[in-house]
Design a protein that fits this description.
Oligomer: single chain
Largest sheet: 4 strands, antiparallel
Strand content: 15-25%
Shape: globular
Radius of gyration: 15 Å
CATH topology: Ubiquitin Conjugating Enzyme
CATH superfamily: Ubiquitin Conjugating Enzyme
Order of helices and strands: HEEEEHH
Structural class: alpha+beta
Number of helices: 3
Mean pLDDT: 92
Length: 150
C-alpha cells in the first residue's frame, strides 16, 4: 500500500528535524503520525531564557493541507499575552493563515519568535473567560488576531 501524502510529509519533516535540529527545539516523542511532543527552550537574552516549554502537535490525515493542532502542555505553558493558561496559542499561522508549505520546524520557529519578542510575562486579558468556555481543541475557536507586536 502506498504511503499517504501526510505520512510521506511527516516522515520527511521528522528526518529533517533530526538531521538539522533547530536551536532550542528538542523532539521528545514522534513515534507516530498522530501526535508529536517537542520541548522548546526560551532563547538567550529573552524573558524566557532557559525556560522549558512542551508543545504538542496533533495531525490528521489532511495534513499538510490542514494545519496541525498545536498547543502547550501543562504544566509547561509560558505566561504570555498570546498563550492561554489551558495551552491554546493565539497565532494566526496555526489557523487562518496556515499554508501547506509550512512545516513543524517553521511553526516552532514562529512560536519561538513570538516568545522572544515578548517583553512582559502576562496572560491574555480574557484568559479566565476564554478557558471557561473554550473547547478542548484550539482549532474550534474563532480567533481575533489584533496584536502582532507580541
Amino acid at each position: 500500500m502506498a504511503k499517504s501524502l501526510f505520512t510521506k510529509r511527516l516522515s520527511k519533516e521528522l528526518r529533517d528535524l533530526n538531521t538539522n535540529p533547530i536551536e532550542g527545539v528538542l523532539i521528545e516523542e514522534a513515534d507516530d503520525f498522530k501526535r508529536w511532543r517537542l520541548q522548546l527552550t526560551g532563547a538567550p537574552g529573552t524573558i524566557y531564557e532557559n525556560e522549558e516549554f512542551k508543545l504538542e502537535f496533533r495531525f490528521t490525515p489532511s495534513y499538510p493541507l490542514e494545519s496541525p493542532e498545536v498547543l502547550f502542555i501543562r504544566p509547561h505553558i509560558p505566561i504570555h499575552p498570546q498563550v492561554y493558561s489551558n495551552g491554546h496559542i493565539c497565532l494566526n499561522i496555526l489557523y487562518k493563515d496556515w499554508s501547506p508549505v509550512q512545516t513543524v520546524a517553521q511553526v516552532c520557529l514562529s512560536i519561538q519568535s513570538m516568545l522572544s519578542s515578548c517583553t512582559k510575562k502576562e496572560l491574555p486579558p480574557d484568559n479566565d473567560l476564554y478557558i471557561k468556555s473554550a473547547r478542548s481543541s484550539p482549532k474550534e475557536t474563532t480567533w481575533a488576531f489584533h496584536d502582532d507586536t507580541v
